Amino acid sequence: MSKTKNKVIIRNKDYDKLYSLIEKNPGDIADLLETELNRARVVKDDKLPSDVIAMGSTAVFKRRDSDDITRVTLVWPADADVQARKISVLSPVGSALIGLPVGGEIDWPMPNGKLAHLEIMEVIQ
User: What's the angle, vertex CA 47, arms to CA 102 and CA 84, rounded to 5?
Assistant: First the structure.
């Protein structure tokens, strides 16, 4: 299971679309994403703090296990493009990032069975 120090905050329009996506794409990642959505604070679209990762946001994060710094844009599955650094919200890292604020940290299970410890450094809306 995931472990985070931060409350997840989701825009209302993203919340509804994410639940629809989960229903159409069952699996381990969808189950983890659903767990995060169940504990999320849902806010009006215009009330999302600017430092919180939402769909379409660019996030800069550090993997604490390797100190690698990565910059990605969180997108819907149909818009994913690894070469352009656009990752799907249904990818392991994408599902971990949604709703986290700058300074937020999360331990998230990866396909290799290990936990990735991610720390959010910057969010660009």
Answer: 50
Cβ pair 73, 57 in contact under 8 A: yes
Tokens (6 digits) for 69:
């710094």
The CATH number of residue 52's host domain is: 3.10.50.30
Q: How many domains are contained in the chain?
A: 1
Please state, in angstroms and as integers, the Cα–Cα distance from residue 52 to each residue in 39, 47, 100, 104, following that order.
15, 11, 5, 9
Residue with tokens 């931060």: 6
Q: What domain range is 48 assigned to?
A: 3-124
Question: To which residue do tokens 């599902």 refer?
Answer: 95
Which residue is listed with tokens 């799907």?
Answer: 88
pLDDT digits 0-9 by tens, 15-53: 999 999 999 999 989 998 999 999 999 999 999 999 999
Residues 6+ apart with CB under 8 A from 27: none
The torsion angle over the Cα atoms of residues 107, 112, 80 and 45, rounded to 10 degrees, is -20
Taking the whole predicted model, whether its pTM rises above 0.70 is answered as: yes
Rg value, the chain, Cα: 13
Spatial distance between the Cα atoms of 7 and 125, rounded to a whole number of angstroms: 19
